[in-house]
Amino acid sequence: MTSGRAPRGPSAGPLTIGVAFDLKDEVEAELRRRGHPPAGGAGAPAAGEPDDRLEEYDAVATVDAIVAALGRLGHAAEPLGGGRRLVERLLARPPQLVFNIAEGIGGRAREAQVPALCELLGVPVTHSDPLTCAATLDKAVAKRLVRAAGVATPDFAVVRAPGDVDGLGLAYPVIAKPLWEGSSMGIRKASRVDDAEALRALVEGLGAAYGQPVLVEEFLPGVEVTVGVLGTGPSARVLGALEVAPRTVAPERFVYSLEVKRNYQEEVAYHVPPRLPADTLAAVHDLALAAYRALDCRDVGRVDVRLDARGRPGFIEVNPLPGINPVTGDLCILARGVGLDYDGLIGAIVDSARARHGL
Predict the structure, then answer these.
(1) What's the farthest any 2 CA atoms get from each other in the chain?
(2) What whole-number distance in Å separates Cα of residue 64 and Cα of residue 136?
(3) Which end of the chain is more exposed for a tag (fewer CB within 10 A), N or C?
(4) What is the pLDDT of residue 181?
């Protein structure tokens, strides 16, 4: 999946770049058009419906920030949107490069939709290709692939019904998550459980709310770290790492949940670099880079890692479309911590993509 071309610098000249994205309100409108509106409508979710049903999708402020950054870098940038509108625009007037942050709509391979469309139409696109985007969205598939490549990851199982909890052979405590969601959808402070009875109830609730299998994995009680990676294949490099340190709960019980992310200023402290011994941090970097390369991620990604009780890192998951809200995005917070401003981050993603495509 890598081109082997040497990276090119900004002297290669400006590009016309279209930004592909999916906004929360537009996704909701599309679901209505398909006859599958969120049960809660445009307002609060209905009883029993998860309040994070549109958590993956972007706000206008993020798109505006990307377009502005691309403009400051000298490119001619244009918001394209997603779904049918994106198809129409790519057919009518394709840009030289698509900057992709679109999450797609529907199914366990939804993040593969835009890169697949760009491949079909022959339009160069940033970020990972369809296979990687599909494989990494399904947490179990990603874990099987990295484990096959020799990357440590907690033992896990895929559970499709509460009755499947018995006989899993996993050591408690465990954590349970929807199998193919991102942005901590379905992950709450109560997602860490200590026994089979609590796990059965959690699996039943997740299945009803999200309509998909549940990933159950052994819970690692050590420090939580997220690692930013830039580049592709042999040129991929660790940008830096960010420790997510809980303020309100003991570290061994901490879950980087949706509630925490929504209230991050009070719930956690971020440390760049992580407060880890040099050899442990090096092991975290090595594991993240190995997982990124094993999954053939391109241009940029964010790898979540957690330490076990002995201080050894384990792969949790990778996001090949990491959130890049300039204020709240973990990758952006991490980048600032290592001295890379927002324009520099966006520029690095573009430079990696144009090197692959020979632009």
Answers:
(1) 60
(2) 27
(3) N
(4) 83
What mean pLDDT comes out for the span 2-17?
Answer: 58
What is the spatial distance between Cα 258 and Cα 119, in angstroms, rounded to a whole number?
33
The number of domains in the chain is: 3
pLDDT single digits (tens) 40-60? 333 334 445 676 666 677 789
Residue 7 has pLDDT above 50, yes or no: no
Place of tokens 């082997």: 4
Q: Are residues 228 and 203 in the same domain?
A: no
Does residue 310 belong to any structural domain of this protein? yes
User: Which helix or strand (DSSP H or E) is residue 281 part of?
Assistant: helix 278-294
CATH code, 114: 3.40.50.20
- SS3 of residue 232 by DSSP: coil
pTM of the shown model: 0.90
CA 276 to chain CA centroid, Å, is 24
What gap in Å lies between CA 211 and CA 358, rounded to an integer? Answer: 42
Same domain, 207 and 298: no
Domain closes at, from 106, 135, 164: 135
